[in-house]
Amino acid sequence: MSQFWKPGTEKPRLIDDEEGGVLFLTASASSSSSGYGFASIEKQRQRLPVYKYRTAILYLVETHATTIVVGETGSGKTTQIPQYLKEAGWADGGRVIACTQPRRLAVQAVASRVAEEMGVKLGEEVGYTIRFEDATSTGTLIKFLTDGVLLREMMDDPLLTKYSVIMVDEAHERSISTDILLGLLKKIQRRRPELRLIISSATIEAKSMSAFFQTRRRRGLQDAEPALAMEPAILSVEGRGFNVQIHYVEDPVSDYIQAAVSTVLLIHDKEPFGDILVFLTGQEDIEAAVKLLTEEARDNRKSSSGLIVLPLYSGLSRAEQELIFSPTPRGKRKVVISTNIAETSLTLEGVVYVIDSGFSKQRFYNPVSDIENLVVAPISKASARQRAGRAGRVRPGKCYRLYTEEYFVNEMATEGIPEIQRSNLVSCVIQLKALGIDNILGFDWPASPSPESMIRALEVLYSLGVLDDDAKLTAPLGFQVAEIPLDPMISKMILSSNQLGCSEEVLTIAAVLSIQSIWVSSRGIQKELDEAELRFAAAEGDLVTFLNVYKGFLQSGKSSQWCHKNYINYHAMKKVVDIREQLRRIAQRLGVTLKSCDKDMQVVRKAVTTGFFANACRLEPFTHNGMYKTVRTSQEVYIHPSSVLFRVNPKWIVYHSIVSTDRQYMRNVATIEPSWLREVAPHFYRQDGPDPMLH
Ligand code: ADP
Ligand code: MG
Q1: Which pTM does this prediction carry?
Q2: Of 208, 220, 517, 568, whose CB count within 10 A is highest?
Q3: Burial 173-198 (b: 16+ CB within 10 A, else e)
Q4: Which residues of the chain have pLDDT under 70?
Q5: Which residues are in the Helicase C-terminal domain (predicted)?
Q6: Top mutation candidate among 41, 113, 122, 343 for ligand 1, by most atoms within 8 Å of CB
């Protein structure tokens, strides 16, 4: 074993640096080979750009409360820095090193890579936690987790005492949880001077981050750790990306899926070997592109022989994920069709060609209509540059942008907007309240959310009975809702099922709503899928339909064949069973008695209304196109074609979520009685005439 400098021991001598302004130390990077058989992985580790900065990073972390590391994707930030910290002793004495990611899939992928590099079993020294899935043990030294899960951990341990270093990774993404986390970590730092933060990011907005973490030295802190610098240190890891040639289309394309597919075939035909990475927006268009390419392979063998086409989006099974990272066989060309998860969170080796649709799925919230949806929206220049960069990892590459140069130069926004400024804040507000942050507008945000969104969130939480007149969490309801790791509306639904005697049913609904879809993807099999859905369809809507599917699944003995026959996604159903079990435990801990209402769907719908009353909609009379209006803000909305109530159009419904394409479509709806609205939310609705109205 080589010697590593351990924090707290005598520091290595500082020498001048020849590498461009970055600190370098004499006890320079040497490696530990942790056993036999890892030599090639060790070599790979040493070849990563971040390796040269190993000692510098350890020195900065030792001497600074906050260290900001900027480095190109693939330079080794995520997989290496936690290992360096561990080797240097930051996980000694029962302490844990945490590394957060905005995305669940990235958490799993990097944790499994680091476990492999260290030659340990995933879940032991190296573990991960994502919502509803905990792969850690008491011996875990390096823990990867989503930023959302770390926020939840603060409810039990507000100062996050078990962590010695917290690395907030992918900070440039500015996910809503990352921003909340940064604000809270800044507070924690004042109470825990020994805690170290590393903020890592793929792009250079380090200055604003640095300004945010600038804290004036306080007397208490100074006494605790006199040598600790409170100014954040910034370290920039020089990458070694190769040149990437950019190609634009001459005229705007009307169908980016088709254009992407043609470009793949063109590259395959004309360009030397090297893998292709295609950026589309979500599961649907990715699967459409996979299908087009697979059909091409069937119909026209010549143009596509040797292509291995793989999708990459969240919700993929473990086996599917592994295919993405496995090396491309000789004589083949891998085509990975991905969401923007491959933009910076995951590195795929061997990519030489990138095709950029110019779009991604983004969350947008409108506080006036109070509707949040995921829409396919143009990316920013910063994103476009990141995407292009993915082509230059192994050798000079090419990026094909499916938009014009003129569009890129003149119309594309420079930077994206932080998610907190385009999200519904209900979950965010309740989490902060649960952590005792009462003045939410006055909270120290890296980017302030809009007051309108904040007020909307407060209104909803007040009407759910979660906040009182002083905007404090109510006891016990408010605290209980905060404790359930779900949207407050769903949590409220679960809690209210106790009195209504239908907790068994409502837990199933909540579990199904926690995953994307229980149906197999609908591309090309819409008719079969519709027929399958009809077998389970309930007149009360999609949420009750879920109960029929779940029952059928259990009766089949959780059979994959049964799922296959009914166009139901087997992996999704297994997840539902697993999530439901975890929710059941949480609910029971909170005093919910398990009880089934058997066939009485009225109480189930009532429980649903108790959570989702703010999403009530009424069918517009005198129109015949299925138009609804939200009671709350009079927005025009329609039932989504995938719903069992599509074209049925009952008069009163509540919805779970909205997706917007050509129209605003409600997904997962349930029928309700209008009189329930006033009954469950008297602060919200009044009823003078025949129909409930807003106060
Ligand atoms: P960064 O966080 O700076 O973007 P990473 O630490 O994620 O970089 O990746 C560093 C390198 O580790 C990658 O360039 C790649 O070579 C390798 N790597 C990372 N994840 C995997 C994986 N799942 N399978 C194989 N190699 C991987
Ligand atoms: Mg990374």
Answers
A1: 0.89
A2: 568
A3: bbbbbbbbbbbbbbebbeebbebbbb
A4: 1-39, 204, 206, 215-226, 301-304, 522-524
A5: 260-436
A6: 113
